[in-house]
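// run 5 | inverse folding | seed 20
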């Protein structure tokens, strides 16, 4: 039993040292980031109804962003925090 434990310690140390010396390729890649804007208490049809009134960033968001007027997340109880978590997951 003592020889097995000593061998295990030596192998564990070897694996640990080798893992420290190998380059990490995952650190070199940059993830693509996304922005999620969730609008509460605003009917989806208002975005199209008042489209001419939106200027600047809101206009750009409507023209170049993703728009989901019929998105529905089945939640047991509608609450802001869990609802936004469901959108982001």
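// decoded
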């Amino acid at each position: 039993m003592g020889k097995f434990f000593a061998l295990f310690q030596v192998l564990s140390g070897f694996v640990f040292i080798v893992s420290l010396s190998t380059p990490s390729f995952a650190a070199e890649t940059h993830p693509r980031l996304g922005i999620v804007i969730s609008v509460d208490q605003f009917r989806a049809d208002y975005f199209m109804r008042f489209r001419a009134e939106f200027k600047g960033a809101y206009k750009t968001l409507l023209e170049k962003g993703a728009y989901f007027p019929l998105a529905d997340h089945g939640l047991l109880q509608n609450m802001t925090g869990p609802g936004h978590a469901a959108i982001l997951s």
